[in-house]
Amino acid sequence: MKIKILGFKGEIKDINETLNILEGDGIVQLMDARAVAGKEHVLHATTHAIKAFERGENIANDLGLEICLRTAATRQISKALKMVGLKEGPMEICAVLIDSDKLDTLSRMFKRDDSVLRPDESYLKKLYNLTENEIELVGVTGALMERTTLLILES
User: Which SUPFAM superfamilies does the record cross-reference, listed alphabetically (predicted)?
Assistant: First the structure.
């Protein structure tokens, strides 16, 4: 399984149209880059999503959506989409590609810019309601990765 995590800047005019263009081979999941704490956070969430499907413990019926849930560290689809989902208008985008050849398509739609994957710690602290204790102990990225891991312990 080949996983790529890439950053882009661009304009989302129509979410459904954007997603339809990217359908096809493999998985392409787009998320709000501001809501991710770097490639490490997204890779951790993606790995957990894949393993959840392998164990039959997935929350969503779609691997892309499962990646959103794990990234947002929540079992609620509507909450995950509100936190990490696409919005219409200018966006910084985190793209997760799994066994997909849609990189050229993405590059025609958006401007490649991995700098958007750098965590904005103050934004993430507010978005995820992180405590000072969590941040002090493991940092923002570590705290979000820990929350993703804890999802498997919840029932």
Answer: PF0523-like
Mean pLDDT by runs of 10 across the 155 residues of the chain is: 97 96 94 98 98 95 97 96 97 98 96 98 96 94 95 65
- Between CA 86 and CA 36 the distance in angstroms is 13
pTM of structure: 0.94
Strand order in the sheet with 111-112: 27-32, 89-98, 3-12, 111-112
